[in-house]
Amino acid sequence: MAGITDADFLNKVIPYGFNVATLGGYSLDTPTIEASKKIIQRGRKEFDFPLDMIFNHIENEVGLIKKFHRNVKVSANVRSTNPQPIIEVGNIKKLDIVEINCHCRQNEILAIGCGQEMLKRDDLNKFISQIADNVSSEVSVKIRANVEGVDSLKIAKLVENAGADYLHVDAMKPGVFEADWQLLKEICNNVNIKVIGNNSVNSLENVKKMIDTGVNGFSIARSVISANLDFDITNF
Ligand SMILES: Cc1cc2nc3c(=O)[nH]c(=O)nc-3n(C[C@H](O)[C@H](O)[C@H](O)COP(=O)(O)O)c2cc1C
User: Fold this and answer.
1) Contacting residues for 174 by C-beta, under 8 A, at least 6 apart
2) Confidence check: pLDDT of 190 > 90
3) Could you read off the pLDDT of 95-133 as tens digits, one per residue?
4) pLDDT tens profile 145-159
């Protein structure tokens, strides 16, 4: 979660049972950094690092997590209009996973063709495969489901074919306060890539629904910051 999930925050929540911790989202090139500044100006939290600091910063943050939690995989969720800076992050020593953000829906990010707008790029396959072919870390692609004009299942297959290791799906369904369990099932039944389900894991009941979709793992965001989980995640 932009502006929130830094090493300090993650080190506090990892002991509750997480085996992957995601830093970021970070903006990595001039257009995304400028967009982040505009988002900050209207009062929303964002990480704000200049181009000449961001890569060192991420490397330090990874080190701060690994220092206390050697066996936890560290992921960095990143945005960029071109693959090169993402490749640079994916080659950071000790970083386990670089996660391409095809998910953000802040207007400033959409205006530069980033975040969920990436799902509409004709060259998305090439964008992902260029990264997958040139990094030492694993590659995750985080998508938002049910984006208007985008076939989520088609995107899931594209991400798999492009050579990513994980498909991270925010299964948001507009107008509904729960994940789109049916879509997650459909994706899991049609791809072999590891699928990480996301959205509305905020109760034991929803954990069960999430696991029943067939996902390989799941992620939790808002319930971690509000600290209102009514179950022990170490049981899963
Ligand atoms: C304040 C806030 C900031 C977020 N920032 C990011 C981000 O930078 N990158 C990203 O991929 N998702 C971001 N998200 C989305 C969450 O990671 C997650 O996909 C979404 O909240 C749904 O999952 P949940 O129901 O567990 O919260 C953010 C969510 C919130 C509430």
Assistant:
1) 146
2) yes
3) 999 999 999 999 999 999 999 999 999 999 999 999 999
4) 999 999 999 999 999
> In this structure, what token pair is assigned to residue 228?
């209102």
Amino acid at 26: Y
Pocket of ligand 1 (CB under 6 A): 1-2, 24-25, 77, 101, 103-104, 142, 170, 198-201, 220-223
CB 149 within 8 A of CB 155: no
Report domain extents, the chain: 7-235
Work out which ligand 1 atom sits closest to the CA atom of 24.
8
Other Cβ atoms less than 10 A from the Cβ of 7: the count is 22
CA-nearest residue for atom 5, ligand 1, is 1
Q: Which CATH superfamily is domain 7-235 in?
A: Aldolase class I (3.20.20.70)
For a substitution probing ligand 1, which of 47, 54, 170 has the most ligand atoms within 8 Å of its CB? 170
Average pLDDT, the chain: 96
Instruction: Band the pLDDT of 235: cuts 50, 70, 90.
Output: low
